[in-house]
Amino acid sequence: MPSPSSSATRNPFTEAETPAVGVALEHLVKDFGSHKVLKDVSFAVSPGEIFVLMGPSGSGKSVLLKQIVGLEAPTSGRVLVDGRDAIDPATREQVRMALVFQSGALFNSLSVYDNLALYPREHRVASEAAIREKVMRALQIISLEDTADKFPSELSGGMKKRVAIARALVMEPQLMLYDEPTSELDPVTSASISEIIATLREEYHVTTIVVSHDRDLALNIADCIGLLIGGELIFNGTPAELRASKDPVITDFLNPKIDLKNPRFKKLAT
Ligand SMILES: Nc1ncnc2c1ncn2[C@@H]1O[C@H](COP(=O)(O)OP(=O)(O)OP(=O)(O)O)[C@@H](O)[C@H]1O
Ligand SMILES: [Mg+2]
Predict the structure, then answer these.
(1) Which bound ligand lies closest to the C-alpha atom of 53?
(2) Which domains does the chain have, with CATH numbers?
(3) pLDDT in tens, 228-248
(4) Long-range Cβ pairs for the range 137-144 (8 Å, 24+)
């Protein structure tokens, strides 16, 4: 793995350069009581890389993201972000991370502008004029400048996802994490979100971790793909290696066949 500071993140707003960060999961275990959700998961993401984590519903993807941003402590093992333990509060002060939540998590009572301005206002990082510049620049990057005065309820699902990405961008992240950024979207809107994620990495070299069920997104924009099934990382490799895999668990996940004679669900007794 390249050293954590071997490439630089260009700040989208100031063009200043800051070191890109690497992420490493080491034997990560997460239990909720007797429920073992993550079972000894290890992988590394190099600075400036796009890593896409795929896996069925309930396999532990969102739980894993929460460990990376330090929202939840692992049961054992650790996550290192730029070589620092993710659960140490100092890490969040030293490394700028932005998580785009599965739900978007916009505040419905605030306009798009105020949703984006919330973080810099709370952290008093800039004057109101400088915040305005950052917010409008972030909206411009995702082509939604004209929504600044709208409220989330006035936006389509795809627009909300883009606004959530813009809100993360205002934090000028060195590490962007996305939880299901294309779920519930039509294929064309999904493709445009994939393009935005890839462009942000391309232009600003932001280290990017995407959790997604979206096969097209993973195969088209990932440098590396991990497949998490039942809390275990059963595959970690390039899109070409994933495509070439003959492992029946992987081929069934990528191309599930609908089999009405042998359905996956248990038939109700008649
Ligand atoms: N705070 C919690 N307390 C107890 N169990 C939890 C908690 N958070 C998650 N879980 C459990 O961990 C498992 C994995 O949840 P997770 O949200 O990571 O799934 P996921 O892979 O993100 O699924 P989806 O694709 O549907 O979003 C689930 O069985 C869930 O019920
Ligand atoms: Mg999830």
Answers:
(1) 1
(2) 1-96+174-270 (3.40.50.300), 106-171 (no CATH)
(3) 999 999 999 999 999 999 998
(4) 137/12, 137/13, 138/12, 138/166, 138/167, 138/169, 138/170, 139/112, 139/163, 139/166, 141/12, 141/166, 141/169, 141/200, 142/166, 142/169, 142/196, 144/112
